[in-house]
Amino acid sequence: MTEAGILFVDDDLGVLSSMRRMMHPLRLRWSQYFAPGGQEALEILSREKIDVVVSDMRMPVMNGAQLLAKVKIRHPNVARIILSGHSERRMAVQAINVAHQYLNKPCTLEELSRVLEKTISLRRLLGRRELCEMANGVMRMPSLPTHYVAITKELSSEEPSVEKVASIIEADPAMTITVLRLVNSGFFGLPSRIHTVLEATGMLGLELLRNLTLASGLFSKYEGGTSFSIERFSRRAIAVGSLARRLAAESAAPKAIVEECFISGMMCDLGMLILSTNMSDTYSRILGDHLQSGHSLDKLESMAIGASHAEIGAYLMGLWGFSDGITEAVAYHHKPSASLPPLGMSTLAFVHAADCLLDADRACVRAPEPDEDYLRACGLAGRVSQWRQMIQSDISQQS
Q: What would the mean pLDDT of 306-317 be, rounded to a whole number?
């Protein structure tokens, strides 16, 4: 019995036939459908259970971005992926608000099946169809209003500065994750991932950023509930990401883990921002119950809506194509022992520790003590006391 439905769309019948042959070994794992155009794809979607649409970009009558825009509205529960041999930057303008991921042709069976497997398995994190629909509709994160005004003003100026644009972006978690997601997508086909905002800004170029920001709404302004402080969220996100990266670096963790720590730490509470934006009244009540009762925020969220902010954040990070290490760290940053047993140091270990150790400005979050058993399994036994002393030393020097 197949567990999910995949729909492939391409106007080139030769390519579609090749895709059918390539996917044939996986026919027992997933139900597979093939459409030679957008209208045919919509007809299949109307009668079959489809979980993921994989579409070419350049097609006559209805291109890939136009198709996915319709899918987003008519079938919000479906994940949307562009698979195209064309990586022109102007196409990013069309697809940025409708495609969760952009993959380049040619794509091996191993790579494609990995992306599809991860996309489908992520749905188990949320369970409820309504939550998947809500998360699937999130194509951009809301930013601090002051940062939104600043980036718009700078990009609209006659001579915008790469350095100034980058400094505005890296001060805002939403903008940071947006540009990193975009620059590491298949649009640009880079041989290695970019982890710094300045490098990402230079790679994207100010002209493209201007077009995406002013014409396509790359960034948006926070307009959520008043009980959730976007300012507090942003400050804490950057603080957790910075501390997680520092803990990893000072523990001589592998470079890949150090680089993942900042993004993971910064995004570990992404789900809170999404819930505050999309379920403002409900989430305000949850936060109120949390502050009054002292009960676990994760537990209150799960009881009220069926998933925690950690699970919702991890779903989005995975859907957007971020690494397994980042997705795991976001999903389990409150309960690392619930994840798979570590094989050594992990991104999750440092994000969990940073999240627990940062007790300043924590009105919306009450973190437990660090999970010593998990840290010990990562080879980090006894580090918590050292890290506490380091943080206290920093505070003393600043006062």
A: 94
Tokens of 2: 């197949």
Give the count of domains, the chain.
3
Three state DSSP letters for 340-393:
CCCCCCCHHHHHHHHHHHCCCCCCCCCCCCCCHHHHHHCCCCCHHHHHHHHHHH
User: Token digits for 312?
Assistant: 């919702």
87 & 176 share domain: no
Is residue 1 predicted with pLDDT exceeding 50? no
**What CATH number is attached to the domain comprising 73?**
3.40.50.2300
Give the domain range for residue 154: 142-221
The whole-model pTM stands at: 0.90
Residue 85 binned pLDDT confidence (cut-offs 50, 70, 90): confident
Instruction: Return d(Cα 118, Cα 67) in angstroms, integer.
Output: 23
Give the strands of the sheet with 52-55, arranged side by side: 30-35, 4-9, 52-55, 79-84, 101-104
In DSSP terms, 30 is beta-bridged to 4
Q: In this predicted structure, what is the pLDDT of residue 293?
A: 81
On whether both 193 and 261 belong to a single domain, the answer is: no
Cβ neighbours around 299 below 10 Å, total: 12
